[in-house]
């Protein structure tokens, strides 16, 4: 084995695994069994360099082998190729065979801030595709990345970002492998209570059928289609309900006998389709919920899911998240993560002081900026998402007066976006450039014969992009803080002693069935599954990892990231 300070590149040559360092040293050609032994026996500080963690790590975990550190070249390439911290990205952009990484990221449209958020895709649609895995390509790409980081404007931050991103690639596979402990009986009980007994194939649950009958009676149409929006709207119009959509927010404002049963029907059918019995059988068949996580699946660096809907897990199903006998759950989430990140990025000591040792929104109220906690929340969210109307827009000026550094940061990010520029997170992930369509709109508006409609469209498009970049820097940096939190916590838990699990946690697998491990992640929330005897120690690790992530990113700046942490047998809020 090479010295532990070396990076070890790995690739496949048919059935053989080739291992070499980043230089031109002799290669080691290993069978699958020899490869497993090499990884198992390697110093834990060894850093494996491979094309795509999804191609390598599942097989190792199935053999009971953990990997402490790696460089996921696919994810790192996507960051470095577009980061404005990289002074010369041309070698990375010229490596066209690696640029498929861009297509494999669930990129939100840069012209619409609303699309920054949770995006799902079909299970398995992207795993293990596109990037080359031969040793020459792996070595060449690793060399390009190392050179790009070394010559960048801020190599230390980029190294931290790439390390956290690669740790996330490993963790995403571990989360799927270990699964989230899930009580099928509790889930079934929730569905039965809400929907009625599980129906025969092709039938609706009894309570859904009753509601459907009530809606059709109110529509005076026994054959009305309730699941097709165009047909339902036509049926509503026939009875005088002139709605333009079937959204809850529009329908609940209308006074008509059809509205109450229709809204109840829509709520229950949403539960049935998203998390009903079919979902239970597919995604939690063995007492574990195993979603497919996609690190950096959103353009800001946030995770997405590619099956199972982990990022849209409804609160009413939380009681089904239930620890195994003899085990406990450590459930922790960060209070107001993004506003605290904004304070730290902007070095706004006034906003940081409002957050210190308290609920940030209550701190803003205590500072006399606004009158109520709800107003403080509206104002902060409006500042980060570019609200200009309603309560948020009305309250934002008060924030500008109280916290000029924080507001100046997001206002400047919005201005750059308005003008078609690029913004970058704290560690170095840059926003995508404007789309060709966006540039065409702006170009048309600047022409000498541009109409007022052209200019209005351009102003609207510029504002939309400004809202996107305004939030990009905050949401992206919050994702970086969370990635550092996860990476540190993952490393701490890996050092926990193992217990004799017996039959207590067999569904977690060979690696995670006998020690504390991460079991769930959702933006600013984690769940650790730990033997009862180690629960307090695991909770302390969750807290210390958050503290270290804060110091790692923001140094000595006095900002708190308080955790709402519980040690419990199930994830339901009391």
Q: Can you summarize this structure?
A:
By secondary structure, the chain is α+β, with helices and mostly antiparallel strands. The protein contains 23 helices and 13 strands. A hairpin with a 6-residue loop joins strand 2 and strand 3 (28-30).
Give the integer mean of the pLDDT values: 90
Question: Helix/strand-derived class?
Answer: alpha+beta
- CATH class membership of the largest domain: Alpha Beta
Provide the spatial order of strands within the biggest beta sheet: 3-2-1-4-5
Distance between the termini: 52 Å
Question: Major β-sheet, in short?
Answer: 5 strands, mixed
CA-based shape: globular
Into which percent range does the helicity of residues fall?
Answer: 40-55%
Number of strands: 13
What is the CATH topology descriptor of the largest domain?
A: Nucleotidyltransferase, domain 5
Q: Under the CATH scheme, which architecture of the largest domain would be assigned?
A: 2-Layer Sandwich
Portion in beta strands: 5-15%
**Uncertain residue segments:** 1-5, 101-128
Q: Helix count? A: 23
Number of domains: 4
Tell me the radius of gyration.
26 Å
């Amino acid at each position: 084995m090479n010295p532990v300070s070396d990076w070890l590149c790995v690739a496949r040559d048919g059935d053989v695994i080739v291992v070499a360092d980043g230089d031109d040293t002799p290669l080691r050609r290993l069978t699958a069994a020899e490869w497993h032994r090499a990884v198992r026996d390697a110093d834990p500080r060894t850093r494996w360099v491979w094309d795509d963690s999804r191609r390598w790590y599942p097989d190792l975990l199935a053999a009971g082998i953990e990997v402490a550190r790696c460089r996921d070249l696919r994810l790192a390439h996507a960051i470095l190729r577009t980061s404005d911290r990289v002074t010369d990205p041309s070698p990375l952009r010229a490596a066209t065979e690696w640029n498929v990484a861009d297509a494999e990221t669930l990129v939100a449209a840069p012209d619409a801030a609303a699309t920054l958020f949770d995006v799902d895709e079909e299970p398995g649609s992207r795993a293990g595709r596109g990037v080359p895995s031969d040793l020459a390509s792996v070595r060449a790409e690793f060399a390009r990345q190392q050179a790009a980081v070394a010559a960048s404007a801020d190599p230390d931050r980029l190294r931290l970002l790439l390390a956290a991103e690669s740790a996330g690639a490993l963790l995403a596979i571990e989360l799927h492998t270990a699964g989230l402990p899930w009580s099928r009986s509790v889930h079934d009980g929730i569905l039965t209570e809400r929907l009625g007994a599980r129906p025969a194939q092709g039938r609706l649950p009894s309570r859904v059928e009753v509601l459907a009958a009530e809606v059709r009676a109110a529509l005076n149409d026994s054959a009305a289609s309730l699941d097709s929006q165009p047909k339902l709207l036509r049926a509503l119009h026939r009875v005088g309900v002139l709605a333009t959509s079937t959204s809850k927010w529009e329908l609940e404002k209308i006074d008509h006998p059809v509205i109450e049963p229709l809204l109840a029907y829509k709520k229950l059918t949403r539960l049935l389709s998203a998390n009903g019995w079919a979902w239970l059988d597919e995604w939690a068949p063995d007492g574990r919920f195993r979603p497919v996580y996609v690190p950096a699946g959103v353009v800001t660096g946030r995770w997405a899911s590619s099956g199972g809907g982990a990022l849209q897990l409804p609160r009413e199903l939380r009681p089904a998240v239930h620890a195994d006998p003899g085990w406990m759950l450590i459930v922790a989430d960060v209070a107001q993560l993004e506003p605290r990140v904004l304070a730290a990025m902007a070095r706004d000591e006034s906003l940081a002081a409002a957050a210190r040792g308290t609920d940030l929104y209550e701190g803003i109220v205590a500072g006399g900026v606004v009158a109520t906690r709800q107003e403080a929340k509206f104002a902060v969210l409006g500042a980060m998402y570019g609200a200009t109307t309603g309560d948020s827009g009305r309250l934002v000026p008060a924030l500008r007066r109280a916290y000029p550094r924080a507001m100046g940061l997001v206002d400047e990010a919005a201005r750059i976006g308005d003008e078609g520029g690029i913004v970058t997170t704290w560690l170095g992930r840059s926003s995508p450039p404007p789309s060709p369509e966006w540039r065409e709109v702006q170009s048309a508006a600047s022409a000498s014969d541009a109409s007022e409609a052209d200019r209005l469209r351009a102003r609207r498009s510029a504002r939309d992009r400004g809202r996107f970049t305004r939030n990009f820097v905050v949401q992206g940096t919050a994702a970086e803080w969370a990635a550092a939190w996860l990476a540190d916590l993952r490393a701490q838990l890996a050092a926990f002693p193992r217990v004799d699990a017996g039959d207590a946690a067999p569904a977690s697998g060979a690696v995670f069935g006998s020690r504390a491990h991460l079991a769930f992640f959702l933006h600013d929330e984690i769940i650790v599954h730990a033997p009862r005897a180690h629960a307090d120690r695991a909770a302390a690790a969750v807290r210390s990892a958050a503290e270290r992530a804060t110091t790692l990113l923001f140094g000595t700046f006095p900002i708190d990231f308080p955790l709402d942490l519980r040690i419990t047998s199930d994830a339901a809020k009391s």
